[in-house]
Amino acid sequence: MEKSKNSTVISKENLPGGIKYVYFEGFPGKDSFTVEKGEECYHEDYVSHANVIEPGKAGPGPKAICSLVKGFSNGVDKWKWEVQEVYHVKMAVGDKWIIVSTCSGIPKEKFLEIEPTGNGFMFMAIDVHWVTDGKVKESWHIEELSSAIQQLTDENGKKDVPPLHDGQMPNFGMKMQTAPGKQIKASEMPECIKFFYEKALNHGEGCTEETLAKTCLDENWVSHPNAADKGKAGPGAKGQFKIVEGLWAAMPDAKFETEAVFKVPCMNGTDRVIHIGKFSATTDGKQFGLELESPKKFAIMAIDIHLIEKGKIKESWHIEDWASAMGQLKSDEEAKLHNGQPGLNGEVGMTA
Asked: Which one is the CATH code of 181-340: 3.10.450.50, 3.30.930.10, 3.30.565.10, 3.30.70.890?
């Protein structure tokens, strides 16, 4: 394995055998992947957040998740699932493995409930797996399915596989982890991360363009994706302040809640902080291109990865579950995170 300053560099090769089998044979859709062997990678009471097999319930168990993995690539040409980054966190019981991947292809059959048009897709995925006794016990995951839906339904979209985030440089793997990370409490988050969630994203008093740049974000902060200027680096501290101003104006009751935080040491004295949170707000639907009879609330999970350098956030990779938000807004049911599925925190291993 590679070495850096006498520390082991965490890489794809360090993944536990079970996870490696699922990510390098199952998700890529190789013929060598079998449900039976895949089941050996998961505990019998395996839980996925969200549970897409039986929404709102615990589960779905090893057989169901492996059947889903095996069928995910069916009916898609040029299918590719690639692991880009891996982070390792030591826990009091077991380990957490955070995996960043990209997925792409061109559907030739109905995909994400969309009939094929020749358009392709490419999106990012972030998964957090809790591994005990060598098997996956629980997972928290978000895929940029809303981006895939936009790509597939765009009448002027690319009739092939589009570039990730409209061609924005992904910068994966630039500051690799050098030692096992740890889960920390919200109160132990670096000050720049506290400011970002408690002030910038939560309408906190004292958040201005000046304080955001001084306390939180690097002047040239890069977000993946860049919502302010698609396909380009940025938006920097100034650009992000305009984004949060728009968020405050559109959804005054928007609220970010911290569910879990991981801190991992990386090369050149930097850290990466992985933040799992809940985002809830009330919207009139216009942000999602919907016409609602009245404003409605939604509640979704968000997973963010921040590169911390010299006390500021230098770069961020983030996914919000906007696809679930749209589903909740279209439903007559009360909005609940993962349809009310129990156990995002606490007993299921998200605590330190």
From this structure: 3.10.450.50
